[in-house]
Design brief:
By secondary structure, this protein is α/β, with parallel strands linked by helices. It contains 13 helices and 7 strands. It is globular and about 60 Å long. It binds zinc ion.
Length: 352
Amino acid sequence: MDLLRNREIAELLARAAETAERGSDKAKALRRASRRALLWPVEIGQLRKQQRSLTELSGVGPWLARVIGEWLDQDVEVPEPPPLRRGFQTITEARVRVQSVGSLPIHGDLQMHTVHSDGLVSTVEMAEAAVQIGHSYIAVTDHGVGLRVAGGMSAESFVAQWEEIDRIHEGGLLSDPAFRILKSAEANLDTHGAPDMEPAILASCDIVLGAFHSQLRRTEEQTSRYMAAIRGGSIDVLAHPRGRIYNFRLGLVARWEEVAREAARRQVALETDAYIDRQDLDMALLRVAAEQGAFVSIGSDAHHPIDLPSIDVGIAAVMGAGVPPERVLNCMTADRLMDWVREGRRLRRSVR
Ligand SMILES: [Zn+2]
């Protein structure tokens, strides 16, 4: 008997949620478990073989354990996921890929949030957690002022955070004294690609991420806003480009070849946000980025230290898409990355 995989269980759960009574507790539990299944640390078949209870899995109570148990017994047929749930890896699949033939040499993580915006721990706690999983640097990328729902920060707050970072470095507050916290930000881009932060603050960042957070349900293609963001010259990385969310929002559509070509020309990296329900860009679009010679950045988008290891999802996507290591920012040392940022900013001032 072929055992169902976590990805198939996730799809079955999402489908069951769609047929359950709308807004009911059952519908909510099914929907929640569908998302959590992407993060289950073991394949469900293995758990079954070891005769362990399915309630060990996050989001699975006794009722759902029975429902899933029946699917496993019947080995039910699982249809292809609709676009809203297509192109997502489970963490177990990502880990297998990362642990297989020669993983990428990853030095750091380039997107995360702290209590300064919508994260749950302090800058120093996040940094120490990153030390513990073997990174040699992180970019702390709290939100710019425009994203008020996520505690967006004023210029003064960024300056205060950077002073805090200096104190962490100078005071030797991390167990790895060579560890670098890059001063960064996730600027909110308006639909014309303009950031919500002052040029002087952006120029002081070690690396600047920019992302769209509004008008993400437009269905007509949005190439022009991407071109404007890339040509605007104020961002080094375009973060979670499509703005998609698993089983919730499809994300924007654009002529991706053109976008990736322009990003390559202006040395703006395209991100794969490894947060489990984002996975944005996914493997298919990372392939387009690679074909056009664009640089790629990987960010866990962690809001808590427990999210940091999910960077594996981004590493696996980049590996699966065949992006060469020399085009992956995270494969650069911190010094090399800072050179890359300077080169890019110089290049964008000269390209018209
Ligand atoms: Zn964001």
